[in-house]
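seq as requested:
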Amino acid sequence: MRSEYEILSLILNTAKIDDRIRAVIMNGSRANPNAPRDIFQDFDIVYIVTDVAAIRTQTDWIGRFGELMILQLPDEMADPPPNGTSSFAYLMQFTDGNRIDLTLFPVNKLAELERDSLSILLLDKDGFFDTFAPPNENDYLPKQPNSKQFSDCCNEFWWVCPYVAKGLWREEITYAKYMFDAVIRDQLMKMITWYIGVKTQFALNPGKYGKYYQKHLEPELWEQLLQTYSDASYVHTWDALETMCQLFAWIANQVADHFNYEYPHADAQRVSAHLKHVRNLPKNSQEIY
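struct tokens:
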């Protein structure tokens, strides 16, 4: 596996010898002084170029970066469709384990380039940029919810819980799992992020998809969160749903108390009772109640 020094040298030397590449910016975890260092960190690179279209038509030029395991060109994909910007990205996973996410961005659109707080200017041939501030996590810190955001999160969580119960009662596990993991878990994670924000004065990064939650949650809450991840067993999924409801209610009440927001106690009680009722509802029932 090539070292960080070797990959960065390759990225910079490529830019230096190609007149079409005018500047190089590194974003992401390798620009983050607080991110744990490990062998799986990507190289998130932006090349500021004179002509995106001319470079992207030369499909073999990225071969200089190494032997590819797999390549993705998100701006040429139909599903999901490209974002419609004038940039072009190469997501490159190499056979030696390294990965480079390389984006070409046109010089004539520099005014539209959003400055990521985790950015390091590696090369600037033309003095396009002022000195970059030291990289920091400001763009990745959780933001305080307003009362509407808090209320909507609670409403979505308790509204969708009966969907999970319906899928479990019908023994439609893939439907139930989708509602569980793609919808109500998303609301739980949002609430946990706010809870961690309250604990840390919204000054620490909880990590993408909660990857740093374990650092910030009390051990008992972390263990409870882990119990919300179940296999495809109906019994285990029912248990996980019950645990998730208990965890969401406790966390949300802490957030509500801190901001003096109203928590929907009545909704939570009624839905929780409904979930328990459906779990015990015989399969040959002709009516729910």
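The chain has two domains: 4-139, 141-279.
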